Amino acid sequence: MSLQGPVIVIAEDADPVLVRALESAGAAPVVTAPWAKAATAIAKQVPAGLVMPQAADAPTAKVLDKVGQALAEHAVFTPVLAAPVEGLRDHLRDALPIAADASCERIVARLASAQRVRTLHATVVRRATLVAAPDVAAPDVDPDTPDGPDTDPLDDATVLVCGRGRTYPGLGTAVGERLGLIGALGIETAARYLNARDVDGIVIGDGFGPRTLEAFLTALAEDPRFRDLPVALLPECPATFDAVRLPNMENLAGEPAAVVDALVPLVRLHALEARLKRQLASLDAQGLVDPTTGLFTIAGFLRDLARAVDEAKTRGQALSIARFSFPPTLDQRASLDAARLTVRVVRNVDFACRASDGSILVTFQATPLEKAHAVARRIASVLRHTMLAPADDPTGRIDASVTLAMLKPTDTVETLLARVSEPAPVAAE
Description:
Elements: E1 7-10, H1 16-24, E2 30-33, H2 38-45, E3 49-52, H3 61-72, E4 80-82, H4 88-91, E5 96-97, H5 104-132, E6 158-162, H6 168-176, E7 180-184, H7 187-196, E8 201-204, H8 210-222, E9 231-233, E10 249-251, H9 256-284, H10 298-315, E11 319-325, H11 332-345, E12 351-354, E13 360-365, H12 369-386, E14 401-406, H13 413-418
Parallel strand pairs: 1-2, 1-3, 3-4, 4-5, 6-7, 6-8, 8-9, 9-10
Antiparallel strand pairs: 11-13, 11-14, 12-13
């Protein structure tokens, strides 16, 4: 993907080599501006990206506030890449880090990755505007525009920490204090988690040999699902691996808390991308998909369930429904994580929603009770082994209580749902 323009390079003395590299990658025009004129340039150009490459620059708080205010005027996310500048993070929390000695190729690759999120955000904004607009043919119809979450994307973020050395416990603690945490002592375990669930970042500690580390990084770079993942690498990057292949990888050092602080903006961006994808799916489904979980909304689920019940009775097909209930003390992050995992494990012919009490309802179409029992047990097992542990018990696992019911000839939607309202345990394998 070529860069979008215009791009503004904010520096007292912009590097002409960097400017040429951005122009060669398609970012036309590339505008240079000193810090004192940065806010004016942002307001005038409506940039598709900002690059602040000089760590030695020390703008005042007033200048940084003006830059932040100018960016806030834009409806679409504008990526900001910045070398370490004192006080910058207090005013531009979403600024993506770049090393002070980062090559032009790495800056271009990271900006291109961030601009993909910008394009996705612009698409969501445009679709939401179209959905909200009144239909000329039916002006009295009030369109159902799904409301996306307005919380910090970090509230949804999950980071995988892998390592075997002395840094692993500290890294796990530092990540767990701010983000959802998945721990893996080995590369094989880490790969299994990456394939089983959504992850917004990876922290790789010490304890792995150069060949193992290079093989893992190569696998990430070759898979489009993981290529843009933020990666904090504590060991030295293997000399034979081209770091440009992972645009959001950073070699970080220091205390675990400092490593997490440096990675957080990249993790927030990846979590924002995941959120935007769910919002886009919701808009495409005309509001029947919950933009928070990716499952059906309750209204959408009930509508589809009524249709499925009618079809099952008309055609004489089996239909089963399951409720997965969780302990009432389950925290919000783990509860939402369970719902998002369910999106990945339900069959294409089935549909599900997250109820107001946090339980998950899944309808199994053309599925008799015996087969539904096996499918529900498999889903419960995946949730037990994959979903985030509760915040007060980081090493614990959550067992969902499952209730199953099969459609009877005399059932209505209400009576079918009533029969799964009280959980009765179904063992997970």
